[in-house]
């Protein structure tokens, strides 16, 4: 198969990772690969000008080495040192499009002038990860919108013999792809009738295979949770908010931020959640009509001022309002940042500034998520093309929670259009219902954590005293999760109690109610604001039980890694003897190692992957400067190789060593052979640095130092080596936006889980004659801020029970495409307690380590 890939519409971070992954995955499957420069515009222009030049002999094509196969059938398995593979490896004469001019290759022979559809090889896309935007160019093509333009595009594809197309772009680009495929048979007939193609070509190209990948910073495509580039844009916005926060606080100012998003409020909403904003405006959930138009008050201005005034009244010194570019009120009247500023200045007397982030949101290095997901999606796209038949629909590759999905392109495009139509028709309920569940939950989460109101208080007999504890090493997002839990509690009338320094702190009565304002800045804080350690309840289980009783805990939220899981297990087992443990308890996994059984994802793992990517980008630059250096990078992660493996995928490392796979002499011999072969194949003077990632506990004998020295010795004149240990830097400084947003979402789910379990236990105890009734009429305090005079007295009851079902002590997990509650008791059979990790892991089952090595050609070069 001859596969071409193009990027179209607005550029987004991660598009290069898609191109790299599609090119490499396609070559590995025996396909020929092409890139189309400048999006659909390149497809319309084709290679006509270049072909003329070729006739005159001014330019030459690279030649295949003797004995290699030009076209390889899809089922063909590439053999080690296969001439086809080697040819593809060396096809380009260095990175094709990185010489700054865009139009001329460095040798002068492989010119790109007048040439928009270009054959590319393996090494042409090396190291494309770290680059933002799209290196193959993008455009908004007017010509492709016309049938005439699409006819030219079809002709150009057929002339190059291309039979499959990967399109990476936004909803417009994918609509274009859909139109193109629908018209294909008609275009072919027209080309035949005008004599531009012959019968043989008609037969060969009767079926155009198309697959779409969504590259767009807006995250506006239906049927996928995330579009490629949206997470990086969110990073840029959150960096800006974090920077603005300090100056806003210093001067007690208000800032109005306008962010991108014409028809979709995803960026504004998620930035609002992750940045801890006070108020947001998004198109899907517009506020009431403006006072300006309706007159007489009661417009959104009142709602906004009221909310912000409440925050200011309890002592908040800074105000952040986020406005999506396409925000409007219920009358579809646009809401502009400048006008929001006027309202805040005039009505609340706030010193207000407007910041428009503009194109800074598009640019910059892709975050870890925008390297890993596009890589996995690119591989899936190639598979979808290879499996495509005339009867299968064109697919769009998407993502749901943690799962790469294939959905019919037409359906996704139609649903996306429905959202825009629903907004235009003022059917905002429908617009919201068409967004993915995460969007809706995040909006609820935003209100739950940003609004200062108690209107959602539950009946007083259901009020709980919820202990919140951090356990194990700090991980990005644990403070954000705590903030969300605290605010949820206060909103519903519960008393949130911060337990400082884990179970040791509890034994020392280091436990205090947490206030709304007190946790305000915790969103962006790294480390652990509550303090944490690894002590388990078994240190003195009886005393821990008595402390539960002393502090009248009626619910517990444990945030942490494997220790938190082990602690919850001990508490659940302790229920047999200690009634004070017969309360709802929940564990929210948070660890950079991502080693909690049965969950694909733990809070903090995204932050640490980003820390690893940042460090490795810098290291790789240094390694490349020395041309032929291999860096052996050591990561944390305990006995779990998740961080090392996903880090290797995100940085394009060529080898990865994990505790699960271990290291032995055979592996080392093979890997040395690979590096020697690979460096020998590099174009002279164009060698680049390479990374090897080693998980700290991959082997107790073959240490990082050993491997580094061995590579240096074996590399001879081909390469030398250095090592770098990333250590605790991997815990990351500021938590990543994805960790923050997930922290809020999962934490709120944990709190409503505690409420549900509490209600069930109460219902059970009132109906059961066996119920041990131990009702406490205590008084909790709703503490909104320090010294604000707003504290309110509330009642509190708790009931202890004989028969607590195991489900009431559970772990919140993400499994593939859904969130699931797993009773901690059930987790045991899935846990490898000795190695402190799950018995199974999705990234092992889906062969990520093999993919890392395949994408650098290790198996192809040395078996
Ligand atoms: P972004 O989300 O960044 O705006 P996008 O892909 O939605 O990206 P558009 O400008 O809408 O950006 O579309 C990109 C290109 O896709 C257009 O310039 C045009 O060439 C093509 N295209 C869009 N809609 C159609 C259509 N209905 N028919 C044919 N081609 C289309």
UniProtKB/TrEMBL annotation:
Active site (catalytic residues): 218 (proton acceptor)
GO BP annotation list: canonical glycolysis; fructose 1,6-bisphosphate metabolic process; fructose 6-phosphate metabolic process
Region: C-terminal regulatory PFK domain 2, residue numbers: 465-863
Residues forming coiled coils: none
Keyword vocabulary terms for this entry: Allosteric enzyme, ATP-binding, Cytoplasm, Glycolysis, Kinase, Magnesium, Metal-binding, Nucleotide-binding, Transferase
Mechanisms controlling activity: Allosterically activated by ADP, AMP, or fructose 2,6-bisphosphate, and allosterically inhibited by ATP or citrate.
Pathway info: Carbohydrate degradation; glycolysis; D-glyceraldehyde 3-phosphate and glycerone phosphate from D-glucose: step 3/4
Region listing for N-terminal catalytic PFK domain 1, in residue ranges: 1-451
Region (Disordered): 762-792
Binding locations of beta-D-fructose 2,6-bisphosphate: 534, 591-595, 629, 636-638, 696, 722, 836
Low complexity compositional bias, start-end: 776-785
Domain Phosphofructokinase: 2-50, 116-385, 465-754
Enzyme nomenclature, EC number: 2.7.1.11
Role noted for this protein: Catalyzes the phosphorylation of D-fructose 6-phosphate to fructose 1,6-bisphosphate by ATP, the first committing step of glycolysis.
The protein's name in its UniProt record: ATP-dependent 6-phosphofructokinase
Annotated organism of origin: Pleurotus eryngii
């Amino acid at each position: 198969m001859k596969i071409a890939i193009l990027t179209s519409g607005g550029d987004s971070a991660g598009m290069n990772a898609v191109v790299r992954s599609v090119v490499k995955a396609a070559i590995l499957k025996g396909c020929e690969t092409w890139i189309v420069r400048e999006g659909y515009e390149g497809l319309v222009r084709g290679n006509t000008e270049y072909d003329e030049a070729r006739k005159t002999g001014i330019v030459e094509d690279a030649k295949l080495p003797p004995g290699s196969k030009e076209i390889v059938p899809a089922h063909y398995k590439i053999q080690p040192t296969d001439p086809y593979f080697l040819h593809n490896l060396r096809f380009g004469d260095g990175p094709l499009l990185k010489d700054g001019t865009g139009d001329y290759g460095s040798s002068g022979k492989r010119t790109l002038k007048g040439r928009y559809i270009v054959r590319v090889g393996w090494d042409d896309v090396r190291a494309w990860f770290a680059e933002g935007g799209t290196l193959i160019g993008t455009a908004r093509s007017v010509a492709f919108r016309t049938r005439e333009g699409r006819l030219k595009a079809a002709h150009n594809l057929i002339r190059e013999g291309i039979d499959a197309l990967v399109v990476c772009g936004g909803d417009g680009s994918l609509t274009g792809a859909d139109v193109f495929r629908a018209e294909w048979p008609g275009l072919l007939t027209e080309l035949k009738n005008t004599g531009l193609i012959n019968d043989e070509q008609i037969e060969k190209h009767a079926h155009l295979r198309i697959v779409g990948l969504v590259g767009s910073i807006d995250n506006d495509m239906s049927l996928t949770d995330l579009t490629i580039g949206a997470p990086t844009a969110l990073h840029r916005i959150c960096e800006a908010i974090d920077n603005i926060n300090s100056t806003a606080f210093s001067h007690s100012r208000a800032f109005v931020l306008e962010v991108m998003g014409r028809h979709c409020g995803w960026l504004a909403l998620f930035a609002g959640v992750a940045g801890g904003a006070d108020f947001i405006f998004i198109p899907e959930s517009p506020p009431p009509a403006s006072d300006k138009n309706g007159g007489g008050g009661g417009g959104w201005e009142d709602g906004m001022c009221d909310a912000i005034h409440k925050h200011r009244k309890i002592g908040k010194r800074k105000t952040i309002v986020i406005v999506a570019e396409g925000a409007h009120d219920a009358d579809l009247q646009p809401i502009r940042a400048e006008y929001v500023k006027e309202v805040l200045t005039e009505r609340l007397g706030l010193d207000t500034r407007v910041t428009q982030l503009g194109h800074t949101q598009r640019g910059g290095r892709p975050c870890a998520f925008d390297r890993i997901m596009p890589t996995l999606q690119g591989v899936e796209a190639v598979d979808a093309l290879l499996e495509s038949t005339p009867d299968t629909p064109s697919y769009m590759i998407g993502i749901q929670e943690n799962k790469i999905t294939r959905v019919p392109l037409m359906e996704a495009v139609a649903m996306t259009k429905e959202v825009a139509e629903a907004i235009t028709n003022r059917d905002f309920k429908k617009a919201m219902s068409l967004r993915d569940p995460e969007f809706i939950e995040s909006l609820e989460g935003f209100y739950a954590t940003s609004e200062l109101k108690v209107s959602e208080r539950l009946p007083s007999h259901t009020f709980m005293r919820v202990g919140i504890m951090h356990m194990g090493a700090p991980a990005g997002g644990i403070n954000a999760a705590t903030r969300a839990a605290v605010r949820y509690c206060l909103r519903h009338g519960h008393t949130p109690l911060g337990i400082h320094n884990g179970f040791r702190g509890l034994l020392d009565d280091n436990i205090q109610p947490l206030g709304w304002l007190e946790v305000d800045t915790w969103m962006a804080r790294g480390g652990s604001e509550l303090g944490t350690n690894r002590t388990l309840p078994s240190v003195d289980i009886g005393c821990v039980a008595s402390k539960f009783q002393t502090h009248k805990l009626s619910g517990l939220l444990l945030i942490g890694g494997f220790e938190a899981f082990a602690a919850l297990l001990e508490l659940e087992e302790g229920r047999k003897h200690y009634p004070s443990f017969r309360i709802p308890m929940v564990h929210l996994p948070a660890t950079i190692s991502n080693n909690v059984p049965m969950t694909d994802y733990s809070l903090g793992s995204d932050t640490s992957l980003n820390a690893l990517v940042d460090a490795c980008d810098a290291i790789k630059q240094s390694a490349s400067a020395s041309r032929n250096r291999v860096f052996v990078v050591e990561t944390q992660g305990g006995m779990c190789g998740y961080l090392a493996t996903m880090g290797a995928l995100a940085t394009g490392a060529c080898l990865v060593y994990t505790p699960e796979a271990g290291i032995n002499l055979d592996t080392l011999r093979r890997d040395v052979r690979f590096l020697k072969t690979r460096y020998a194949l590099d174009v002279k003077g164009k060698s680049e640095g390479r990374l090897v990632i080693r998980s700290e506990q991959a082997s107790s004998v073959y240490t990082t130092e050993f491997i580094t020295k061995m590579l240096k010795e074996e590399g001879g004149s081909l390469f030398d080596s250095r090592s770098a240990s990333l250590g605790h830097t991997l815990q990351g400084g500021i938590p990543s936006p994805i960790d923050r947003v997930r922290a809020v979402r999962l934490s709120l789910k944990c709190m409503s889980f505690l409420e549900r379990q509490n209600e069930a236990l109460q219902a059970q105890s009132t109906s059961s004659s066996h119920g041990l009734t131990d009702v406490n009429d205590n008084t909790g305090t709703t503490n909104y801020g320090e010294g604000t005079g707003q504290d309110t007295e509330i009642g509190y009851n708790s009931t202890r029970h004989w028969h607590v079902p195991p489900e009431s002590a559970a772990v919140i997990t993400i499994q593939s495409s859904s969130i699931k509650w797993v009773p901690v008791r059930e987790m045991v059979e899935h846990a490898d307690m000795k190695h402190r990790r799950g018995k199974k892991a999705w990234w092992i089952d889906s062969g990520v380590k093999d993919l890392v090595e395949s994408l650098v050609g290790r198996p192809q070069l040395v078996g």
